[in-house]
């Protein structure tokens, strides 16, 4: 009965969207808030509304709605197993929601282009990569990994450069203590266990494709354990990382920065946060090489670069 009333309410709201394109975004924004309050731990509802949010006409709230819903999906992950039979009603309502939003899709503005949507992040392979500018063996791996494979594969790389950014050096020792990785560079960590790292340019280059294919959905391996990127508060990502994905990179410049969600949104779909100040720093140094980006901006202790 509650589900039926809820679908009826959604129908009324959709009718208002059709009457006025300008009003549509605001109605959707209120709908998101109501849905979160009523069904905060229902992954089907969240996934349906995530798709719908790509057609949200209110650009001021579109990204906030999208990010809020997606993060909520992870927040409720551990409570899913406790769901009761009432979940079935949510499934029915979710199907109705999908139909309602697909009917009105033709009236929506063009969705923002992105190379990957957030729900697909579960298929991403994550590397933690230790390198050093000036290291000749790193010079063999850096351009292959950070100029080629990062753009060709569904690959997320958390890079820690330890020669110039010597604040990152203690982190290499933390991985060695936890996983017995050794202290050599270049090093790629893919699994949170002993033997879960590959060290040296020749082994990394020989195994790179198989590591990417084998470790889909492995999460970001930290000394405390692996975490899915989208549920990882970036404050828990230590030191001064560079987060590479597709044609963009987010570089933490200030270890005190607590910024998280806006940076993850940029990494995943290239959305620049409001207030990101244009920067002339468009080059990222590699060992014996560099990557030059088309755009750069600074935001709350991070430098965000993209093509």
What does this structure look like?
- This protein is of the alpha+beta class.
- The protein is 43% helix and 18% strand.
- It folds into two domains: 2-107, no CATH class; 119-306, Glutaredoxin (3-Layer(aba) Sandwich).
- A nine-stranded mixed sheet has the order 4-3-1-2-7-8-13-12-9, with helices on both faces.
- Helix 3 (43-53) runs antiparallel to helix 4 (59-75).
- The longest helix has 18 residues, at 2-19.
So, CATH architecture of the largest domain?
A: 3-Layer(aba) Sandwich
Q: For this structure, what is the CATH homologous superfamily of the largest domain?
A: Glutaredoxin
Strand residue percentage: 15-25%
- Identify the CATH class of the largest domain: Alpha Beta
Compute the average pLDDT. 76
Amino- and carboxy-terminal Cα gap: 50 Å
**Biggest β-sheet, characterized?**
9 strands, mixed
Rg estimate, integer Å: 22 Å
State the domain count: 2
The fold-level CATH name of the largest domain is: Glutaredoxin
Percentage of helical residues?
Answer: 40-55%
Strand order of the largest sheet: 4-3-1-2-7-8-13-12-9
Describe the protein's topology.
Elements: H1 2-19, H2 21-38, H3 43-53, H4 59-75, H5 87-103, E1 125-131, H6 136-152, E2 155-161, H7 169-179, E3 187-189, E4 197-199, H8 201-214, E5 220-222, E6 225-227, E7 242-245, E8 248-252, H9 261-269, E9 277-278, E10 283-286, E11 289-292, E12 295-299, E13 302-306
Parallel strand pairs: 1-2
Antiparallel strand pairs: 1-3, 2-7, 3-4, 5-6, 7-8, 8-13, 9-12, 10-11, 12-13
């Amino acid at each position: 009965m509650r589900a039926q009333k809820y679908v009826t309410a959604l129908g009324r709201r959709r009718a208002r969207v059709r009457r006025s394109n300008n009003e549509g975004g605001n109605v959707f924004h209120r709908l998101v808030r109501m849905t979160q309050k009523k069904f905060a731990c229902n992954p089907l509802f969240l996934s349906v509304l995530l798709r719908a949010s790509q057609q949200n006409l209110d650009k001021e709230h579109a990204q906030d709605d999208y990010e809020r819903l997606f993060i909520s999906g992870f927040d409720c992950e551990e409570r899913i197993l406790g769901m009761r039979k009432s979940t079935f009603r949510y499934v029915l309502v979710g199907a109705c929601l999908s139909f309602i939003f697909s009917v009105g899709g033709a009236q929506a503005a063009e969705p923002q282009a992105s190379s990957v949507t957030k729900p697909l992040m579960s298929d991403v392979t994550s590397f933690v990569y230790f390198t050093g500018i000036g290291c000749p063996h790193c010079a063999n791996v850096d351009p292959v990994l950070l100029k080629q494979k990062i753009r060709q594969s569904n690959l997320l790389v958390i890079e820690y450069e330890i020669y110039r950014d010597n604040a990152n050096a203690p982190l290499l020792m933390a991985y060695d203590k936890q996983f017995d990785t050794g202290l050599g560079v270049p090093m790629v960590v893919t699994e949170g266990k002993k033997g879960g790292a590959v060290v040296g340019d020749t082994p990394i280059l020989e195994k790179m494709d198989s590591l990417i294919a084998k470790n889909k959905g492995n999460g970001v391996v930290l000394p405390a354990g692996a975490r899915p990127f989208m549920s990882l508060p970036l404050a828990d990502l230590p030191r001064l990382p560079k987060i590479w994905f597709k044609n963009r990179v987010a570089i933490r410049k200030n270890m005190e920065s607590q910024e998280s969600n806006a940076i993850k949104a940029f990494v995943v779909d290239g959305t620049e946060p409001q207030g990101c100040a244009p920067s002339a720093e468009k080059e990222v140094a590699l060992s014996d090489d560099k990557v030059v980006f088309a755009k750069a901006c600074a935001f709350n202790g991070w430098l965000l670069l993209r093509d």
